[in-house]
Write a structure and sequence with these properties.
It is a single chain. The protein is mainly alpha-helical. The protein folds into three domains: 167 residues, Hypothetical protein af1432, CATH 1.10.3210.10; 137 residues, no CATH class; 89 residues, no CATH class. It is built from 19 helices and two strands. A hairpin with a 6-residue loop joins strand 1 and strand 2.
Amino acid sequence: MRHKDRRSERWSGNTKSASDTRSEFRRDRDRLIYSEPFRRLAGITQVVSPYEGQSLHSRLVHSLKVGQVARGLADNLLSRYSRRRLLSRSLRISRHLDPDMSEFAGLAHDIGHPPFGHAAEDELQDIMESHDLDSFEGNAQGFRILTRPTGHYRDDASRLDFTRGGLQAVLKYPWLREPCHKKAGKKWGAYRVDREMFEWCCGPAAPLGSWSSVGDLPPRSMEAEIMDWADDITYAVHDLEDFARLGVIPIADLLSEGETLIRFSAWLTKKWESKGNANAIEALDEALGCMKKHLPVRSFKRSSERDVALSLFTARMVHECIKGTSLEFRDSVHPWAMRRPDRLNLAVEAMKELAWYFVIDGAEVRPSQVGQRIMIRTVFEYFYGEARRIASGLSHAHLPRSTRISAEITRNSGLDISPARIACDAICDLNEMQTSRLYNRLTGATIGQSDIFGESQEAASYPAIWGANPGR
């Protein structure tokens, strides 16, 4: 079977109707944006909670922009390289890169984020280390959400049913956890409980314990490389824009190269050196060069001029990164590799750290992060008790609908289910408002019997853009 045909296959074997003119990968993209897990991201923190009252990026808006940048990268690379003459048609770039799939990967890349962002992810990892070898990982949770049976479509056993290529594109880390490996022990793309879907997508997974601490890892797809680069670009420039507008990131002070820059430079150098990266000063110089090029200090005298300058900075940086990205030919097995522009890649990495230094690691945010971790642990313990009811054969469990259906299908199939994994699923099916409301009830801060989970459930019918059901 041809490479592109395999990538367009679905687990169910279903194919589109004759009247549907979309490509299979465009169907993936459309199906995702109509789904409940994608809609949930509107209530999930990017850096600061979307309920804080400021017009900041939510996880949904971030994902929309990552999808847009990923598509821009794919379109630009196809335009530049599609006319290259190669000996074999199978090596042509159009057979290995699809803009719809790239956009889908960008839209879906954060689908597994729990409420409250990194604070919740750290807390869930701490909790799950004692329950499951696979712990908790946002990327692996995302793959689970995209592949588990949830009853979204024709029957309760159905999945969102994305293509093999679409799932490969979302796999930033296309391997299972390997605790002894330097990288695969920290980041992984799927849990072992989801191994069947992972191997359908990527082929046989390496047995646990078969890798050395620094062994080679499986390669990512071209679209996954593009999604990862688009995520970094978007994360860097849009978070900088958000917090520079609020005055939290002091752009003018940084550009004047005074005491603020000295303190940030010292913090960045120490952080990167602890990870074995000695490029902090070079990266900071590149970031300052980009900022001075597009953000002259004089633009920060009035807020209106500052906002215009920040908008132009975002547009120009995204454009420069897209145009600077290239491809290199490798071999007939994995023909093409995306290459980030070295200078801009360093600048983007340093810009990403600005949000960490001035916001995420800031003293003002720390009390909220402590409270969020307490909230996540309390809700996890509640859901863990409810999940044990499912595991013991009971059907009346207070869990989000998608979590409950997935757990019941797994149990009824005769497979072992982990109450701790179900509890993680339940948390990752909630937005931050729902999590806060449930926590308040559990602690007695509020009382009531209304359906906490109901407000984000799938609507009974879909807009008739592509018929009664847009995904099918």
